Amino acid sequence: MIRMTDIHEAPPEPASIGAEQIEYLEQLARIRLSGEEKERTARDLSKILDYIEMLGELDTEGVDPLSHPVTTEPVFREDKAVNDDRRDAMLRNAPEHKDGCFKVPKTVE
Amino acid sequence: MANFETVMGIEVHVELSTKSKIFCGCSARFGDEANAHVCEGCAGMPGTLPTLNRRVVEYAVRAGLALNCEISRFSRFDRKSYFYPDLPASYQVTQLYHPICKNGHLDIVADGKTKRIGINRIHIEEDAGKLVHDDWDDCSLVDYNRCSVPLIEIVSEPDFRSADEVVAYLEKLKATLQYLGVSDCKMQEGSMRADINLSVRPVGSEKFGVRTEMKNMASLKSIARAIAGETRRHIDAIESGETLIQETRRWDDNKGFSFAMRNKENAKDYKYFPDPNLMPVIVEEEYIREIRASLPELPEEKKARYIREFGLPEYDADILTGSRYLVAVFERAADICKNPKEASNWVMTELLKLLNDAQMQPEDMKFSPDSLGTILNMLTEGKINRAVAKKTFAEVFESDVDPVDYVRKNGLMQVSDTGSIEPVIREVLDANRKAVSEYLAGNEKSIQFLIGQSMKALRGKGDPQVVRDLLIKGLDERKG
């Protein structure tokens, strides 16, 4: 695994990601980090952002944003329902199921 | 109450009537057993790759052309990320940055005026699964049959000022999409869903008020009530100096008010980015031309033609063309009986009454399209009378009987030969001396009673004209 420090020997001052943003990201990603993990993640993410910032040095004036690296004809599927009912096989992938449904913790909006 | 105006925009989600889902070969059919149509792809398992259903692009372009949109030669798919159990991939594929259709409009008639409603965009996206909450087991159960069923989202400009305009727009949109064959638009089955963005401002003000969004709109009637209720809530808040918050609310049609949806405590951040697994959609001018040429006659053109060619009243033409399912019954009947006015009258009176009594929508009709025309022909040929025709049509509507068989099996053929009717008339005249003497004394209305009695004796099958003529003849004989 490549560590960010290996790529970027002398990173600029990493200040872009603060504690508040880490908490926000925790919520979005539905994960919980310990205090030490928070600090490390903030440091790493800041370095990543700084690294990506290098792109900002390029002059992209007049260049259209690229939406896909490959430009070939689009690939289509014909509108046919070809799949069999494989409910039982699909449900076997779930940690829990009930009444033919995937069972999840109660989620009410 | 100061003068306020309500400003609304509508987002309509419509499920496309494709046979299969948008990116995999699973069936898109509604109403089957839970999770019968699920594969690794639409269950969001890592390592699967999507392949776009050709018909989805075709249907979106059809809808776009019918709604006067510009069709983007280049459009593209983006991922909208959020965690919710109805979305197994944890992102929805949609078109944020480059929608397939833009800048359209739809003309509606509301409050007696024609108004043009702007359509900002139409984009393609996939539907999510369905959650059922199990209170007994304190869990939620997920059915992914609907997951990845193709949708188009039609986003209007904030051009609506009244609930009538909103309802007229949704009805016109529904009729148009049904004509195009791109969706069945059944609100009760969720294949057409509307979100209303609403704000209130003092009349004359240029600035928009604070906007709230209402989801979960299940019928046109509940939409009209929700708009009235939410407008009242906004005005109350403005007048009492309360602060309105921009939020998503759910309308509870039973309680008659909206409440804020619990927002899972966190702000939304969908982290949109182009889906690297899907190629951009490039459509050629030639393809757009072909689709444009294949568009059916739309409600407006049809209505004008009905008035012009068949001489139908505008009101009737408007109702008939309001649903392609009514159009189908009408056009087939008119074609068979060669009498469009008669066919229109039957749809406008008998069919609408039957639908209303059964609390059904035109799209739920099940009878053979030829039946009404067959009944009208029997009527014109004098094989059945009008009352029997109505009874037979009700039976066709109810259980799709063959009208000719039904009339024959139940012996409902019209009796018009004088030899069979005369003896009945004599009996009726003998048995109702009071009505006879009233008639003879100059009260001509009494003949209606005698016609009724005669028809009853003929078990409803008598030819009304023959019965009337013979009655008058019999009464005249008794004058002396």
Question: Keywords, please?
Answer:
heterodimer, A: 109 residues, mainly alpha, Histone, subunit A, two-stranded antiparallel ribbon, 4 helices, B: 480 residues, Arc Repressor Mutant, subunit A, 3 domains, nine-stranded mixed beta sheet
Plain-language structure description:
- The complex is a heterodimer of chains A (109) and B (480).
- Chain A is mostly helical and 109 residues long.
- Chain A has a domain at 1-59: Glu-tRNAGln amidotransferase C subunit, N-terminal domain (Histone, subunit A, Orthogonal Bundle).
- In chain A, 36% of the residues lie in helices and 8% in strands.
- A two-stranded antiparallel ribbon of chain A has the order 2-3.
- In chain A, a hairpin with a 2-residue loop joins strand 2 (97-98) and strand 3.
- Mean pLDDT of chain A is 81; it is low at 1-14.
- With 480 residues, chain B is of the alpha+beta class.
- Chain B is built from 15 helices and 17 strands.
- Chain B has helices at residues 54-66, 163-180, 220-239, 285-293, 299-310, 314-320, 324-337, 340-357, 371-380, 386-399, 403-409, 418-431, 433-440, 446-457, 464-479, and strands spanning 4-15, 52-53, 70-71, 74-75, 78-81, 91-94, 101-110, 113-126, 130-134, 139-143, 150-156, 192-202, 212-217, 247-252, 257-260, 273-274, 281-282.
- Chain B has a 9-stranded mixed sheet. In chain B, strands 6-5-16 form a 3-stranded antiparallel sheet, with no helix packed on it. Chain B has a two-stranded antiparallel sheet with strand order 4-17.
- In chain B, strand 9 (130-134) and strand 10 form a beta hairpin.
- In chain B, helix 9 (371-380) packs antiparallel against helix 10 (386-399), helix 12 packs across helix 14 (446-457) and helix 14 (446-457) packs across helix 15.
- The model of chain B has no long low-confidence stretch (mean pLDDT 91).
- At the A-B interface, helix 2, strand 1, helix 4 and strand 3 of A face strand 2, helix 1, strand 9, strand 10 and strand 17 of B.
- Strand 3 of chain A pairs antiparallel with strand 10 (139-143) of chain B, so a sheet runs across the interface.
